[in-house]
Amino acid sequence: MLQCQRALGIERRQPSPGLRSAAAAESGFSHSSRNRNETVLRAMIEDALAAADAKSWEKRLTAADVPCAAIWPVSEIVHHPQLAHREVLQQIDSLEGPLTLVGSGFRLSEGGGSIDRSPPRLGEHAAEILAEAGYSEAAIAAFRAEGVV
Question: Of 39, 71, 115, 144, which has the fewest Cβ atoms less than 10 A away?
Answer without folding.
Answer: 39
